Amino acid sequence: MPTKPTPSHSAASSGFEWWRSLEPAGSANTDKLEVPATSLLDMDWCAIRHFSLGTVPHLVDYQMDAHTLMIFDRGSFVEGVRGIEGERFAASGPLDIGIDVVPARARFRGRAEPGSNVGCTTVSIFPDRLDEAMKESLGVNAGLRPSIALQGELLAPLAVRLRQLSRPENLVANNSLYLESMCMVLCRELLLAQQQTHEGRVARPVGGLSPRAQRQVKEFLRENLDQKVELQALAAQAGVSPFHFSRAFKVSFGLPPHKYLLSLRIQQAATLLRGTREPITDVALSVGFSSSGEFARAFRQAMNCTPREFRQANAGTDESGLNTQGNR
């Protein structure tokens, strides 16, 4: 089989396009956003890159000849929507709860509004090479389908490992064989996860909160991060009963209220750790944790590092989260 051209790793030429403006892509008011891409792997059948957009509001729009797997950084969070092929699959909430699967030649569009914080490792895989490999491994063609936040028994640890390897301090030269092996295992587990869930398409949420209620609840939570938040108070913001609220909230946001609130607190703490020199204890108290110890445990569980390690690792980024030291 002929070898395909090696894909470029510049943000502009790799097929990914971002706009700083939140106007519809292609309008006269759009402002192209250049995002540094860190290359982890560049082979004839697959490539791995890491992009960090931080807190910059943006649109993203791409349609690739390769399958694209999106593994978001721990703590990544979006205020906005994303979808594939015109279907709105997911709205505001944490991005790191699964893997987004965008099949070759399918169109992905996303919108990150103020309040978002986005970092992502992308795995690009050429369909014919994947079909060949999976035919040998599983005896079937690799018919990947669109998925948002796909989960599986082995997908979570694979995603954790790729996130770790994409961190600047873990970038290692001559690591291609290991990363290639990981890509092959990842593809196999993605196919198995899609088969096991019989996922022809992602079902649209039904029975969730209205857009207005979602906005009110989010604003209330953001304004009360340092307070104890009761379920009844949240339900009152949405104008529904506490029983109905819990179910409707999870449909709308993909998480129960307490886990969503925790993700907001970790998100805000990460912003403060990156952009200020406030003592870690003060950061903990300002986002609703009762002590620095409680904060450190929750932060490590969410971000896979301590608050101090996170602050040190982000010393080379500006307040938007974009790398100020150029491509690595």
Oligomer: single chain
The parts where pLDDT drops under 50 for at least 5 residues are 1-13, 199-205, 319-328
Distance between the termini: 32 Å
- Give me the strand/helix succession: EEEEEEEEEEEEHEHHHHHHHHH
Tally of DSSP β-strands? 13
Structural class: alpha+beta
- What strand line-up does the widest sheet have? 2-3-12-5-10-13
Give the helix tally: 10
CATH superfamily of the largest domain, by name, is Jelly Rolls
GO molecular function: DNA-binding transcription factor activity; sequence-specific DNA binding
Pfam family, one: HTH_18
Protein name: Helix-turn-helix domain-containing protein
Keywords: DNA-binding, Transcription, Transcription regulation
Topology:
Blueprint: E1 17-19, E2 37-42, E3 46-54, E4 58-63, E5 67-72, E6 77-78, E7 80-84, E8 87-90, E9 93-94, E10 99-102, E11 107-112, E12 118-125, H1 127-138, E13 147-150, H2 155-166, H3 176-197, H4 211-223, H5 231-238, H6 242-253, H7 257-275, H8 280-286, H9 292-303, H10 307-313
Antiparallel strand pairs: 1-4, 2-3, 3-12, 4-11, 5-10, 5-12, 6-9, 7-8, 7-11, 10-13
